User: What shape does this take?
Amino acid sequence: MAKISLTLIQTFYQVARHGSYSGAARELNLSYQSASNHVRRLEQLLNGKLIDSEQGAKRIALTPRGRALYNLLHPELDIMLERLSKLIESQRSSLRVGMPQAIFFYLFPKVLSKFRESFPDMEFAVYERDTVLAELVKNGSLDVCISERYFGDPVVPQRLLGSYQLSLVYPHHWGAPPEQKDIPLWAKDRPFITYEPGQTLRNFAVDFLGRDGAVVQPVISTSGSSSVKRCVEEGLGFSIIPSWCVLPEDKTIVSTKLANLPEVRVYFGTAGFLQKHPAVQQLFEECQSELVGPVLDPPRSGELALAAL
Assistant: This one.
């Protein structure tokens, strides 16, 4: 049998306890859809129906197997979670956070400054990567991840912080920027600098430049925006990077926002059992306060369903 996560068990327990997905969602700070998905995933892992509910119905009914599982969990699960929460709060002296290098380098000093006012003695340990963050949270190597990827994994619930635009950047002596519709043709035969394979921003850039079947072959690839931007400043080529990487004092490069590219969304994810940990909650609030508005565009109404854990 596949391993069953505590997150899925906890969600089922709260759905059964409240008699509804909406009640469990409020209790766990989840979206309604996430609560439903957790239960559906648990049913798949157990190979059996746990809950009966009709489309649009406000109340659910437990199947015989669901009732048996709930009786097995109650009340020991509450006691176990309470003890676990107290243990974590009393013992955790560090918060292990993973995020892309550029987000930490350009955006996180202000977040950390505010965070440390509340937790001055806690070590903030950062793993600067774009890929593998979900797996690192799942295997216990990370507590929190800030990512430009939506994992769709119930074990690593995510909240949508906001989104940002990408910009074309190139050496100043190359002249005026092309029309946005002409950029793929403009880029042909020019040296392209980008991120290492697998990174989200590389995929965005390659898809954009490769329209109409063009072959996109980078001349330099590296792990972070600061390194990419440095290569552009040295005149080694052009790139597509987050707009917030370009500062007013950057006089050696030209930057133009790419309105015809999709916005890049930024998500806050965490291990399910740490959702209510004071340090995790405080970090999320500081990310909202310092990033959403000044740097990130807030989620639109149609995106709010993704914003809840």
